[in-house]
């Protein structure tokens, strides 16, 4: 039955689409994950999802139930609230799963219950508004592949525009209430809203890399549910210069690229910054201090340009 259920979950895995846009999607094998020594390992035969609310009869779904519900795909970027400028704790993927709005409609809870608490298998919780919850997906696949244990198998939340601590994996319980909750990280002082700060980073060249010839500068910019409206670079602290970037939908990162030829061999510095549709532009702030609301620090690197061969 479980094999049939999995076939029902992934009848048309979008692997070809992922392969045709490798620059956009982070390969599943390289997608960052929580620093667990050993992530929870859950047997789908024994897993269930509990949906509960004040004054309502709970709804309990098995993995097979989830497999046979209507599902969809959602392109979304994940980033850790602990991300520091240039860090690896960011990735973009095509997620597949059941819309949380559909699950909550199936549950039929009172619309006055405007807050939610999500619990995962190890007992940690995340809180968010019902509106935020309904905008997301209960995902069971990434890039056309089954969700790995390290990324939250058998199901995780994907809610565009929020930091990843608001999107727990290994989900076992969702509760609705008429009052706000404080989840595991919120109780420790981290952002209550979980909204992503506007950020950008350089992917090529790498810090301290030795390059030559025409140099391909590239990277990403991301502003949560706000659109990125401008990406700029500065070489050796020169004036900021706008460069081309690929516009994307809210909740997805944008890629930028620019080919540059150094006027001479030597060591150069490179900075990048992004502006979002609210008018906010990244500023030089402490790149080591993401607490409590995440970082929008400017990413900068230095690299070496070699003499032509």
E-strand count? 18
SSE topology string: HHEEHEEHEEHEEEEEEEEEEEE
User: How much of the residues is beta strand, in percent?
Assistant: 35-45%
Q: CATH fold name of the largest domain, please?
A: Sulfite Oxidase, Chain A, domain 2
pLDDT averaged residue by residue: 90
**Biggest β-sheet strands, sense, barrel:** 5 strands, mixed
Named at the architecture level, the CATH assignment of the largest domain is Alpha-Beta Complex
Brief overview, please?
The protein is mainly beta. The protein has helices at 2-9, 15-19, 63-67, 100-107, 130-134; strands at residues 48-53, 59-62, 72-79, 90-99, 115-120, 125-129, 137-142, 145-146, 156-158, 171-177, 199-204, 210-211, 214-222, 228-235, 241-242, 254-261, 266-276, 299-305.
Spell out the blueprint of helices and strands:
Layout: H1 2-9, H2 15-19, E1 48-53, E2 59-62, H3 63-67, E3 72-79, E4 90-99, H4 100-107, E5 115-120, E6 125-129, H5 130-134, E7 137-142, E8 145-146, E9 156-158, E10 171-177, E11 199-204, E12 210-211, E13 214-222, E14 228-235, E15 241-242, E16 254-261, E17 266-276, E18 299-305
Parallel strand pairs: 1-10, 12-18
Antiparallel strand pairs: 1-2, 3-4, 4-7, 5-6, 5-10, 7-8, 7-9, 11-13, 13-16, 14-15, 14-17, 17-18
Care to describe what's here?
It is built from five helices and 18 strands. It is mostly beta strands and 309 residues long. The chain has two domains: 2-15 and 39-188, Oxidoreductase, molybdopterin-binding domain (Sulfite Oxidase, Chain A, domain 2); 199-305, Immunoglobulin-like (Sandwich), CATH 2.60.40.650. The protein is elongated, with a radius of gyration of 21 Å. Residues 1-22 have low confidence and may be disordered.
């Amino acid at each position: 039955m479980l094999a049939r259920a999995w076939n029902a979950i992934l009848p048309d895995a979008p692997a070809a689409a992922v392969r045709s846009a490798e620059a956009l999607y982070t390969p599943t094998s390289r997608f960052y994950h929580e620093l667990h020594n050993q992530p929870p390992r859950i047997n789908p035969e024994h897993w269930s999802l509990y949906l509960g609310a004040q004054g309502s009869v709970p709804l309990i779904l098995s993995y097979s139930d989830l497999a046979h519900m209507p599902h969809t795909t959602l392109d979304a970027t994940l980033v850790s609230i602990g991300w520091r400028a240039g860090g690896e704790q960011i990735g973009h993927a095509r997620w597949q799963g059941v819309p949380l709005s559909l699950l909550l409609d199936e549950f039929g809870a009172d619309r006055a219950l405007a807050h939610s608490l999500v619990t995962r298998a190890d007992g940690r919780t995340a809180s968010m508004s019902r509106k935020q919850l309904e905008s997301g997906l209960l995902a069971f696949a990434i890039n056309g592949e089954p969700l790995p244990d390290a990324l939250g198998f058998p199901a995780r939340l994907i809610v565009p525009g929020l930091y990843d601590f608001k999107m727990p994996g290994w989900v076992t319980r969702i509760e609705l209430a008429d009052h706000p909750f404080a989840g595991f990280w919120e109780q420790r002082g981290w952002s209550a809203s979980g909204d992503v700060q506007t950020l950008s980073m350089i992917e090529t060249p790498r810090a301290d890399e030795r390059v030559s010839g025409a140099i391909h500068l590239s990277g990403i910019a991301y502003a949560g549910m706000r659109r990125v409206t401008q990406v700029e670079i500065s070489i050796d602290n020169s004036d900021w210069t706008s460069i081309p970037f690929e516009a994307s939908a809210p909740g997805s990162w944008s890629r930028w690229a620019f080919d540059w030829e150094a006027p001479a061999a030597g060591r150069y510095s490179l900075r990048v910054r992004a502006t979002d549709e609210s008018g906010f532009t990244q500023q030089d702030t402490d790149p080591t201090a993401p607490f409590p609301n995440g970082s929008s620090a400017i990413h900068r690197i230095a690299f070496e340009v070699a003499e032509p061969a």
